[in-house]
Design a protein that fits this description.
single chain, about 110 residues, mainly beta, 4-stranded antiparallel sheet, 3-stranded antiparallel sheet, 1 helix
Amino acid sequence: QGQGYARVEWSEPEGGEGALSIVLTNTGNRETCEVVQVYRDEPECALVGFARAILTPGESRRVRVPLEPKALRFWSDVGWKPVADRLTLRLARHCEDAGHPVAFNVSDLF
């Protein structure tokens, strides 16, 4: 039996301790699978992390997406540098989804 045909609500995005997280709630009456993706939009749109969750009907769960520090840095002539001191990342279903933005200081995340 395939998974799907369920509605999943996303709420309460937050960041810290090397990850972003969000609460997923399956409001449907079937088990479903949801993939949470994290994108940075500066200097270009890039997928920087993802996590998969299987939710039973009515289940709510906070899903944590670990972030790799290098995904928020770029290589320069003096070594790895942060893309910015302050970033906004998006928890989203796909790259064109406005999703749920989370702003933070990069130094606070790791």
